């Protein structure tokens, strides 16, 4: 499935017993040796009486994370299309708490992503205290960022134009900056108008993606805190547009956008693991292929 080109392998953990290691996730997410995706979503029964389901989110690097905006919409589409619920308002448990998904008549999904978290310790982000703008030293430069959690951590910086933004160079540096002890997703925001931004995102554990729902929320929060944006903003990402609404501190962020199913299938974990384990690519050629960016070869 995908939400604006941010793609997912969504696994039914309700009607089958699923146990995947971090290696399995990396292999499944690999675009040559596996199926290929930015994140893997695992749908399971909820432990929370207020929700019928929980869904777990794993980045392509195998790490489990707290929240995923595009993934939440795809989860809603999945449980509806699989006949697992007939509700229009679907409460779901995630690592960062309960969120409610609304499947609309037009096929779009509207999500209450909860209120943004601005206290540095809860992002987590190392800072002297809470502020609107934070200095961040990268290489020999001092840049200014906003820092927000949507259940998962986000840094947002303003750029003149997203096309020339240093996503590939600064993205990985900021993702692993010492001031973000759990790493961070990095948004490069171009303000077009009070109700319109362009955004490119280097995602924690996945690299640059075509869209990132939680960073779109975080960017609008930062833009409003910096008095640059209105309460309703069209966020144009490389994969398409999201509509984000935020009335101000303490209020929830609402995200509306599409969710598309592109394929259904069966992943043969046994053969995939065995075939990969016996793969005879010699280390040098694997490294060369990886270096050429042709594929992300799991270790
Ligand atoms: N890379 C994110 C998880 C996926 C978020 C993104 N795909 C979205 O749509 O919000 C993280 O490590 O927190």
Topology readout:
Blueprint: E1 2-3, E2 6-12, H1 22-29, E3 39-45, E4 53-59, E5 64-65, H2 69-81, E6 89-94, E7 97-103, E8 109-112, E9 134-138, E10 141-149, E11 153-158, H3 167-175, E12 185-193, E13 196-203, E14 207-209, H4 213-225, E15 232-237, E16 240-246, E17 253-257, H5 269-277, H6 283-291
Parallel strand pairs: 2-3, 4-6, 11-12, 13-15
Antiparallel strand pairs: 1-2, 3-4, 4-5, 6-7, 7-8, 8-17, 9-10, 10-11, 12-13, 13-14, 15-16, 16-17
Bound molecules: 2,6-diaminopimelic acid (API).
2,6-diaminopimelic acid (API) binds next to strand 4, helix 2 and helix 4.
Family: Belongs to the diaminopimelate epimerase family.
Enzyme class: isomerase
Active site: 68, 212
CATH fold title of the largest domain = Diaminopimelate Epimerase, Chain A, domain 1
Q: Report the biggest beta sheet as strand number plus sense, adding barrel if it closes.
A: 17 strands, mixed
- CATH homology superfamily of the largest domain: Diaminopimelate Epimerase, Chain A, domain 1
Q: How confident overall, as mean pLDDT?
A: 92
Which CATH-level-2 architecture of the largest domain? Answer: Roll
What ligand species are in this complex?
Answer: 2,6-diaminopimelic acid
- Report the uncertain regions: 291-299
Count of folded domains: 2
Q: What helical percentage do the residues reach?
A: 10-25%
Strand content: 25-35%
Q: Tell me the distance between the termini.
A: 26 Å
Topology order in helix (H) and strand (E) letters: EEHEEEHEEEEEEHEEEHEEEHH
Oligomer, anyone?
single chain
CATH first level of the largest domain? Alpha Beta
Number of strands: 17
Number of helices: 6
